[in-house]
Amino acid sequence: MAYTLSQVNKTGIPPLLAGIADNVQWNEKRARIRKTWLDYIGKLPERPPANLRYLSATEEAGYTRHRVEYDTVYGDKVPAYLLVPAASVDGSRPSSGYPAVMALHPTHEIGKDDIAIVPGRPNRGYAVELVQRGYVVLAPDALTAGERIYPGYPAFDSTAFYEAYPAWSTVAKNATDHMQGVDVLASLDIVDRRAIGAIGHSFGGYNAYFLAGLDDRIRAVVSSCGFSPFAGDPHPEHWGYRPYPYTHIPKISADLREDRIPFEFHEIAALCAPVPFFNYAGQQDAIFPHWRSVAEGMGELAKLYGLLGREDRFRFYLGEGKHDFPEEIRGLAYRFLDRWLMKEGD
Q: How many other C-beta atoms are found inside a 10 Å radius of the C-beta of residue 254?
């Protein structure tokens, strides 16, 4: 499944379904993709009980924002906000429980506050907008952001992590912590554990689909400006070691030096299928500017959903905008989540 990067840059995204005629053959390829993915990001260790702790609460218009903390692997703790609709306390909540969402923040030093505190940055308040829409929302800090910045280091500096875990990756660490967040949501009696989704923008966008591809309890996923294939990327080293101190997948760097890539990211996104998947990209995105490759990868993903007979579960929107999550796209994304989490999907 490995590819020559320079060749991919010339010929385009590798066909996802080459030699695949049915579900059985796809599932065999899917298993190979997952194995390669885990070989590169590292293991997903057994998770301890989350042991959710409520630290404080703030009443907002229509919802309560709880500051919480829960345990994760290797003695670590995850600080988060748990946003709960006000109706949860007056008996008017759905009999089966609320749908719930893991809301994953972008690359910003304030972490969870970027999406869960208003007023905040324009077009980033999706955690608040979703609780106002009737979702229970868990918005955790990712490693190196918010309350999880390593002492003595700037935000999004992973140096201390790799000193402690040189054979692991921040991708696997965040995925493990986010799965722990799903454990938290699934433990709440106000949540319908059959209706848990994930949403994120940029850094949060790819972490959302990484999570959905590894945890089958995620029943719908929204990724904004988070899909970044190697093909056409002017800075593929983004995924390995780089001058910027945040390293995603160290093992990738050796491949890139040899003009190789062990997978392409539409294959990693394909691990989500047939989970309902909404993706947005902007043609003026200065961070992920290779929108033609993004669109090509999404086209391959659409073919997969077609093969699986689930065309209605996949939506891709390509706009003229920048690296952003604009209001009109958020509206489409929320209606997509509503369809699959607030109503029975088949």
A: 11
DSSP string, 247-270: -S-HHHHHHHHTTEES--HHHHHH
Question: Any residues with CB less than 8 A from the CB of 136 and at least 6 apart, and which?
Answer: 82, 83, 84, 85, 88, 98, 99, 100, 101, 185, 188, 190, 191
Burial (CB count <10 Å: 0-12, 13-18, 19+), residue 180: buried
Give pTM, 2 decimals.
Answer: 0.96
The alpha carbon of residue 16 and the mean position of all alpha carbons in its chain are separated, in whole angstroms, by: 21
Q: What's phi and psi for 68, nearest 5 deg?
A: -130, 170
Residue 338 has φ and ψ, to the nearest 5°, of -55, -45
User: Distance of alpha carbon 206 from its chain centroid, rounded?
Assistant: 4
| Burial of 36 from C-beta contacts in 10 A (0-12 / 13-18 / 19+) | middle
What string of pLDDT tens digits covers the 346 residues of the chain? 799 999 999 999 999 999 999 999 999 999 999 999 999 999 999 999 999 999 999 999 999 999 999 999 999 999 999 999 997 555 566 778 999 999 999 999 999 999 999 888 999 999 999 999 999 999 999 999 999 999 999 999 999 999 999 999 999 999 999 999 999 999 999 999 999 999 999 999 999 999 999 999 999 999 999 999 999 999 999 999 876 789 999 999 999 999 999 999 999 999 999 999 999 999 999 999 999 999 999 999 999 999 999 999 999 999 999 999 999 999 999 999 999 999 644 4
Q: Count H helices, E strands: the chain?
A: 11, 11
Q: What length is written for the chain?
A: 346
Contact between 280 and 126 (Cβ < 8 Å): no
